[in-house]
Known about the structure:
71 residues; four-stranded mixed sheet; 27% helix; globular
Amino acid sequence: MSSSMIFVTDDITISNQEHPIMCLDLSEQVGKYFRVIPAEIWGVENNLSIANMDFYEFAKSVGPGGIFRGF
């Protein structure tokens, strides 16, 4: 099953020095989210779009502040 997600820029994205963008799950765990630094968005989007990885795999790999910074 491919995953549907949306990336959201909000006040936290703008005010945090890492500019973490919210990645919101729209398929399996609707409403669940994690944040991802801009340099890692491509990997999240690519892997979720082709169902190579699941949303939870990224969500469980977040670091401090609930931000995914890569594996």
